[in-house]
UniProtKB/TrEMBL annotation:
InterPro entries: Cyt-d_oxidase_su2. One of its GO terms (cellular component) is cytochrome complex. It comes from Mucilaginibacter pallidiroseus. GO terms for molecular function: electron transfer activity; oxidoreductase activity, acting on diphenols and related substances as donors, oxygen as acceptor. It is a multi-pass membrane protein. Keywords: Cell membrane, Membrane, Transmembrane, Transmembrane helix. This is Cytochrome d ubiquinol oxidase subunit II.
Length: 337
């Protein structure tokens, strides 16, 4: 049952990165869009996000519940030493969802719309930034459980070049995903070209951020090259991600929406495998050379059995409902057009 729970944890993180990433990316694209085109970006984003924007954070909640119930030691350490970026990320999620709702459903159109817009776009940027910072901090060996002062314990654990570089990589990844998904939501040729240009820009930003991550990893002595090229599985995943990215651009050039989205998903999946396989099952790497492992920090077997059973039974209800939600929105859009 332990491996079933770990699989649910990994898939939840993947789906949050895919669906939530594209969701956040819509706000990031809006942030870097000229005023005359912002309204069209919002319209396309509403169309794309409509079926899933409220369901996106379900995957994050599932991951948090799995850690809280199944791996309390890992949950406790993250919520203690990384509580500042975690709180900022959660506040960003709340602010973004609130702004999205008010700017879309507020019956009174006044100056507050500008406030809602600013909250939405900036929280769309801040939230994935700090999500990436948390991920980078977890594996950069900067968390010092033996720290005796506030700065060492709660600031330098996440405020360091490597974690921040991973944060900006996550932001550019979300923007790229959003551009690819929104490319398929517009019918106008000019609008399609606009999203292709945005995807190209975000792709360039991805390459720059990858260089920043590798540079920061050398400064912080994080063995990124070993993780990515030190074993067969990771090497295959790296080349699969490059192949998926190449095929993604080929499908975009052909105007194939479904396959471009498919290869975008393959690109993210391959990246996640490449970045996590080598140090699995160690999920937290500590400054003193220690680590917290998914195979060493688990809760008692009875609790694992109950958690695993709940996840399996719950998926029988959640997944069909989610598919039907997406189907019903797509059907309604087809009827409107």
């Amino acid at each position: 049952m332990l491996y079933v729970i770990i699989a649910f944890l990994w898939v939840s993180l993947l789906l949050y990165l895919l669906m939530g990433g594209a969701d956040f990316g819509a706000g990031i694209l809006e942030l870097f869009t000229s005023e005359k085109n912002k309204s069209s970006v919002r319209k396309a984003a509403y169309s794309a996000m409509g079926p899933i924007w409220e369901a996106n954070h379900m995957w994050l909640i599932i991951a948090i519940v799995i850690l809280f119930v199944g791996f309390p030691g890992i949950y406790s350490l993250v919520s203690t030493y990384l509580h500042i970026p975690v709180v900022v990320m959660l506040m960003g999620i709340i602010a973004r969802g609130t702004a999205f709702t008010f700017r879309h459903y507020d019956a009174v159109k006044d100056g507050m719309q500008k406030v809602y817009n600013k909250i939405f776009v900036y929280s769309s940027f801040i939230t994935p930034l700090f999500l990436g910072i948390i991920a980078g901090s977890a594996v950069s060996r900067t968390i010092d459980t033996g720290a005796t002062d506030f700065v060492s314990a709660y600031i330098t654990s996440w405020f360091n070049p490597f974690a921040i570089a991973v944060g900006f990589f996550t932001v550019s990844l979300c923007g790229f995903l959003a551009a690819v998904f929104l490319f398929g939501e517009v019918k106008d040729a000019e609008a399609k070209q606009r999203y292709i240009r945005k995807a190209r820009t975000m792709n360039i930003a991805l390459v720059v951020c990858v260089a920043l991550v590798f540079g920061a990893s050398l400064l912080a002595d994080v063995p990124m090259l070993t993780w990515l090229f030190g074993n067969t599985i990771s090497i295959i995943a790296v080349f699969a991600s490059l192949a998926s990215l190449t095929l993604l651009w080929l499908m975009i050039s052909r105007g194939d929406v479904k396959l471009s989205r498919f290869f975008a998903g393959m690109f993210i999946t391959s990246l996640l495998i490449a970045g996590t396989y080598t140090h699995y099952p160690d999920i937290i790497l500590l400054k003193n050379g220690g680590h917290l492992s998914l195979l060493g920090q688990q809760t008692p077997q009875k609790t694992l059995n109950a958690l695993g059973s709940a996840l399996l039974v719950g998926s029988l209800f959640i997944l069909p409902a989610l598919f039907y939600l997406v189907y019903s929105f797509d059907k309604r859009k087809q009827e409107v057009h």
